Amino acid sequence: MPQGMSYLHDWMKMEMLEQAETRGSMREAYLREVKVSRLVTTSGPKFGLIVPVTSRGSQRPSDCLENLEKLADSLARTTILDTFNGL
Question: Which residues, in sequence order, are CB contacts of 44 under 8 Å at separation 6+?
Fold first, then answer.
């Protein structure tokens, strides 16, 4: 897991730097923007997940989408009571 998170970090850093370079004069504003998380107000439960998505290691690229669908189904099944308990 630590090695995977390290790869994810390196990839995200590279992507962000690439985006910053393509924005020219807006580079500084872009870098400020991506440093800040925005609060999203909802009336329902509040939680967040960070899900690194990749099809690497899969036999088919569609396996990744199938796994995400399984994750969504699992979250729906296992968090249903949270919505009734006001969490």
Answer: 83
